[in-house]
Write a structure and sequence with these properties.
Blueprint lengths: L14 E2 L7 E2 L8 E11 L2 E12 L13 H10 L10 H12 L10 H4 L2 H19 L4
Antiparallel strand pairs: 1-2, 3-4
């Protein structure tokens, strides 16, 4: 029966295969998804002489990996290693609180030296020295 539950047994009549008098075919109707057990019993003079059983799993054709369970803990570790958080849909409030905290304005005070904070001070000093040298040369003060 569908979904592995035992269903009612049905007797199906074999149908002759066209063009081959020694063969017969069996049309098995699968009504729903699930696992089905098909048992073929060959009888002679009211007694079974051979039995064949085959299980069929009837399911939609899914791409490879479509039935994999998500690795929730692994995804949480990955998110946390990159500065984020991992939450399930049921924990959406934690995500909203985390985003609100992330978006909150923060004040950061940075102390930087004028000498080592920027290379522009060196350019200003060099321009002043070169300007002084050029002016002294033009006025013959050197």
């Amino acid at each position: 029966g569908p979904d592995g539950a035992p269903g009612p047994a049905r007797d199906l009549a074999p149908e002759a295969v066209a063009g081959d008098p020694g063969e017969a075919g069996l049309a098995v109707p699968f009504g729903a998804r699930g696992e089905y057990l098909v048992r073929v019993v060959a009888e002679l003079d009211g007694g079974a002489i051979a039995t064949y059983e085959k299980r069929y799993a009837i399911a939609p054709a899914l791409p490879e990996g479509a039935r994999l369970e998500p690795d929730i803990e692994g995804m949480k570790r990955l998110a946390e290693s990159h500065g984020g958080i991992g939450v399930r849909a049921a924990e959406a409030e934690r995500l909203h609180a985390w985003i609100a905290d992330l978006a909150r304005a923060r004040v950061r005070q940075v102390t930087a030296s004028l000498v080592t904070g920027s290379p522009w001070w060196l350019a200003v000093v060099m321009i002043a020295l070169i300007s002084e040298w050029v002016l002294r040369r033009r006025r013959n003060l050197l």
